[in-house]
Amino acid sequence: QTERRHQPSSTTPSTKPRLTGLTTTVAESPSPPPKRRKLAMAAEQHALPLASNGSTTEPRNEPLLPSGFRRSDVVRLMCQCLNDLGYLRAARALEEESGFAVLSDSMASLRAGILVGEWSRVEAEVEQLQLLSKSDKLAVRFLIYRQKYLELLEAGRAQDALHCLREQLAPLETQGPLCALLHAHRRTPDCFTGPFRHATRDAIPARADTSVAGTSTTEEQRGGCRLGLTIGELSACLLCADAEELHAQMGWDGAAGSSRRQLLHELQPHIPPSVLLPEHRLQTLLQQAVLWQTNQSMFTHAALCGQSLFEDLCSSADDIPRETVRVLEKHSDEVWFVKFSHNGEMLASASKDRIVVVWDVRAPKMPHKAVLSGHTNALSFVAWSPDDECLLTCGADRLLKLWRVQTGECLRTFAKHTETVTACAWLPDGRHFVSAGVDKNVFLWSVARSEVVQAWRGPRITDLAVSHTGSLLIGVCANKVRLCSLSVRADGTPHMDTDDEHGFDEVDSITSLSLSNDSRYLLVNVASEEIHAWDLNERHVLHKYRGQKQGRFIIRSAFGGVNDAFVVSGSEDSQVYIWHRHNSALLEVLPGHSGTVNAVAWNPCDPHMFASCSDDHTVRVWGLPTGPRPPAA
User: Fold this and answer.
1) Interior CA angle at 87 toward 85 and 91, to 5°?
2) How do residues 13-38 score in pLDDT, each as one tens digit?
3) CA distance 522 to 533
4) Is residue 197 helix, strand or coil?
C-alpha cells in the first residue's frame, strides 16, 4: 500500500435604461394602463432588468420566409434581442411597424408583478394564462406561492405567511406529485430547447448559458435549487428566528436579491415558449450555431467569447499542442502527478522520490521555482489553493502538508489518516479542504485550526474533487461515483451532507476522475481501457474515448483547450492520447516519453499548453507545433 500506483487488493485499480420588458409591449396602445405604468415605475426603481418575453397569440396560416421560419417568430426574436442590447426605441419601432408584439399585456403584467412583489396581481394574471395544462398551472402556482410565502416570512409577517401556507400552498400538494414534476423540469437547461438540442447538448458548457444572459441556468446556481418542495420542508421555515436564518436554511437570497428573477426562470419550463420566449433566445441560438460548427469540426476549438459571426469556423490540426516544448528533469524516480496553478503560471509535479517540484512555466526555460521536501514516502497528489499561494501535498506517508510556494516553507502538517492519503481538494473559501485515504475516511479540515471539522467514515475514496461553487463533493470508490452535497452552516463552517450522499455506477473499476471547468461534466478512467465523459446533471455517459492502454496502474485524464474541447490522457504504452471531446475522434497519439505516462494536466489559462509526467522520471510540456507535421511512418 506504500505504492500509489498499485492499489490494495480491497480497492479498485490503480449603461441603457434597464427597463426592457415593459416598454416593448405597447405597440397597440401608446399609453399603458395606469396599473401597468405603476408597475413599470416600481420595477425601474428596483433596478430590475426585465427581458422582453412572450406573446399569447400565434399567427394562423402565416406564410413562411424562404428560410422556413415564420416572419412573426423572427421579428419577435429581433425585438427581444434589441431590448437585451438596450436599444429600446428601436425595438418599439420594429414592433409598431411589424405589428408583432413580443409580449402580451397579461404576460407583461405577470412579469412586472413578480419583479415588484405584487402577488395579488400575479395570482390574477396566472388565472388568465389559458394555454397552461393542469399540471403546469399547478407547478406555476406552487412556485409563485412559495416565493410569496418566503417573502412574507422575511418581512416578519408570520401570520400572513401561515395563511399562505395553509390556504394556498397546502391544497396544491394534494393535487399532484409536485416534487417529481418540478425536478423533471429543472433538469434540462433552457439553452437546449433549440433545433440543435441533440447535436449540441454536451457541446455547450454551462457557463456559455450565462455569458450573454447574466442569468445562470445550471441547477446548482439557480435561486431556489435548495428551496423546499413539500409543505413539511416549507413549514419548518416558521421556526427561523430571523431573515438571516431563513436565507441560510433555504439557500435563498431574499426579495432584494436575485430570487424574483430566478422565479421567472423557474417558471419558464411550465409556460409554452410561444407565450414566454426563453431569455435571450436569439443570442442562445447564435451560441448553439457556433458550437454546432465546433462539434462538427475535427480540430477547431475556438473560444465562444469573441468569436466572429461573419464567417464559418475553420479547422486545422495545428491548433492542437502536439510538440514537446520543454522536458523538465529534476526528479530521481517515477513522476505520478502534475497540476497547473489556477493562474497558469506554475506547474507542480509529485513523484515517488518523495518531493514535489514547482516549475515556472512563464520563463522560456521553465526553471524549477521550488523543491518541496519533507515527506517520507512516495507522493501521488497535489492541490493548489484558490489563490495559488499555497500547495497541499499527500501520499503514502499518511500525511498532508501545506507549503508556501514562494518560499518552499512547510506551514502545517495534517496527521489523521492511518493509511495512504489518495487525494485532496480545496474548498473555494481557501480555509478548508477535504482529503481521502485508503483507511476509508474522508476528512473535512480547517486550515487555521489544523484539525478535522468533520469525518465521513465508510467509503474508500481513491480520487476526489470539489465543484467550483463548493456545493458538491465528487469521489470515486471501486466502480461507483459518489456525490455528496456541501453546505455552509450559520457560523460559516462547511459541512458534508453525508445523509444525502448518492451517486451512480460505472461498468468497471474507476481509477481516476477529472472535472470540467464548469463542474458539470466528469471524466473517469475505467479499468476496461476506456475514458467516459459523464453529464452530472443528466447522469448519463455522453462519450467514450478509446485507444489508450490502461490495466495495471492509475492513469489520469483531463479536459483541455478552449471550452474544454479536447480530452487528453496518459497511457501505459508511453504515449499521450488526445481526442475531440464532442465526437470522440482520436486526434493525436504523441510519442516522447519512455515509460508509462501517469498523468496529464492542461494549463487553465493557455489553451495551447499541457503537461504530462511519466515513469521515465520526466515532465514534458507540450505546445503548438513550430514546423510542418512529420510524414507518417
Assistant:
1) 110
2) 443 333 233 333 333 334 444 444 44
3) 6
4) helix
DSSP state, residue 154: H
Tell me the C-alpha distance between 28 and 209, whole Å: 33
d(CA 368, CA 611): 15
The phi, psi pair for 147, rounded to 5°, reads: -65, -45
* pLDDT tens digits for range 244-303: 989 888 888 899 999 998 998 888 888 888 888 888 899 999 988 887 777 666 555 555
State how far the Cα of 598 lies from the Cα of 548, in Å rounded to an integer. Answer: 12
For the record, the C-alpha cell of 299 comes out as: 480540430
What are the grid coordinates assigned to 178, written together? 409536485
Given its phi and psi angles, is residue 254 left (phi above 0), alpha (psi -120 to 50 degrees) or beta?
A: left
Say what the alpha-carbon torsion angle 50, 52, 53, 57 is, to the nearest 10 degrees.
140
pLDDT, average across residues 219-243: 68
Helix (H) or strand (E) holding 386, with range, is: none
Centre a 10 Å sphere on the Cβ of residue 522 and count the other Cβ atoms it contains: 22
On whether the CB atoms of residues 42 and 116 are closer than 8 A, the answer is: yes
pTM higher than the cut 0.85: no
Residue entry with cell 447535436: 199
